[in-house]
Amino acid sequence: MHSTLSDVFISHPIHIPLSNSPDFTSLRHLPDSYTWTPKDDLLFSASSSDESLPFIDLSDPHVATRVGHACTTWGAFQITNHGVPSRLLDDIEFLTGSLFQLPVHRKLKAARREDGISGYGVARIASFFNKQMWSEGFTVIGSPLDDFHKLWPRQHLKYCKIIQEYEEHMQKLAAKLMWLALGALGVEEKDIEWAGPISDFQGAQAAIQLNHYPICPEPDRAMGLAAHTDSTLLTILYQNNTAGLQIFRDDVGWITVPPVPGSLVVNVGDLLHILTNGIFPSVLHRARVNHLRSRFSMAYLWGPPSDLMISPLPKLVDPLHSPLYPSLTWKQYLATKATHFNQSLSFIRNYLSSDQIS
């Protein structure tokens, strides 16, 4: 029987008591435990830039070239004409808003266990930082039926249907984006056997992460979600009409990704970085907060089957470009990330075989 991603989190629990979570609406001043300085995150005060992320129309005849270029130079881009109905984006935003507007005691009915992966709670990366983040989240893996029934005893089926439809559209879009990006590097369907007989990546695994960044009394000293890369192949993000997402590039610093109605943000994850032998950078990103409007974001975190060996594609390796990474599974990588966090890619580059990665 295939192991699931849940096994990783059972082995690497996070110890952050949810009972200490504040009711953000009741706070008029930023508590010390939520006040960030460069000591808490070296990139907290890094320079920012007015540069903008590539914006790509998926109906553009040169879309593969544009996606490939954006993945190579930025590791992220925004898309329009992506085929996800605007009604469905409205529905997932409505669901997210409805969930986080519930009273704290109701949300805690579906709290994520310390060794769990689904449910309500703070970001797992919180355990790597001394200060707390001005946000709350809800993770969906598999069916949300049990959790949603705890939150909405009479309306859970309506919300489950939205999640199911959203997942179906996101899975198709992720597969399309994957082929566009890899196609720009000359990778063909026959080069990736696990994509399946019709190359639609039906064996892929995914999670949906719903995030809420409440109005903050002192946003310049707070952090919504600290800087991190994603442990995915691709992440597809929908954000409501409030800015907060920032992407980091060494040569320009932090850039803000303004929400464009109906658009989605796509970013390269650590596994696609490995698969492309480092050609596509896994982009560092974070979320800031503001004092006027709360912000919602909905991330689709897309990866391979958890036991599938991932390694640089043979087509992207030659005598001049030797493999930078060993073969490892998503499950192994997540276990490494749970210990080494943002140093995980450099950590595994130092190993010659996946046997040495626990």
From TrEMBL:
<dbReference type="GO" id="GO:0046872">
    <property type="term" value="F:metal ion binding"/>
</dbReference>
<dbReference type="InterPro" id="IPR027443">
    <property type="entry name" value="IPNS-like_sf"/>
</dbReference>
<dbReference type="GO" id="GO:0016707">
    <property type="term" value="F:gibberellin 3-beta-dioxygenase activity"/>
</dbReference>
<dbReference type="InterPro" id="IPR050231">
    <property type="entry name" value="Iron_ascorbate_oxido_reductase"/>
</dbReference>
<dbReference type="Pfam" id="PF14226">
    <property type="entry name" value="DIOX_N"/>
</dbReference>
<dbReference type="GO" id="GO:0009416">
    <property type="term" value="P:response to light stimulus"/>
</dbReference>
<comment type="similarity">
    <text>Belongs to the iron/ascorbate-dependent oxidoreductase family. GA3OX subfamily.</text>
</comment>
<dbReference type="InterPro" id="IPR005123">
    <property type="entry name" value="Oxoglu/Fe-dep_dioxygenase_dom"/>
</dbReference>
<dbReference type="Pfam" id="PF03171">
    <property type="entry name" value="2OG-FeII_Oxy"/>
</dbReference>
<dbReference type="InterPro" id="IPR026992">
    <property type="entry name" value="DIOX_N"/>
</dbReference>
<keyword id="KW-0479">Metal-binding</keyword>
<keyword id="KW-0223">Dioxygenase</keyword>
<comment type="pathway">
    <text>Hormone biosynthesis.</text>
</comment>
<comment type="pathway">
    <text>Plant hormone biosynthesis; gibberellin biosynthesis.</text>
</comment>
<keyword id="KW-0560">Oxidoreductase</keyword>
<dbReference type="GO" id="GO:0009686">
    <property type="term" value="P:gibberellin biosynthetic process"/>
</dbReference>
<protein>
    <recommendedName>
        <fullName>gibberellin 3beta-dioxygenase</fullName>
        <ecNumber>1.14.11.15</ecNumber>
    </recommendedName>
</protein>
<dbReference type="InterPro" id="IPR044861">
    <property type="entry name" value="IPNS-like_FE2OG_OXY"/>
</dbReference>
<feature type="domain" description="Fe2OG dioxygenase">
    <location>
        <begin position="200"/>
        <end position="304"/>
    </location>
</feature>
<keyword id="KW-0408">Iron</keyword>
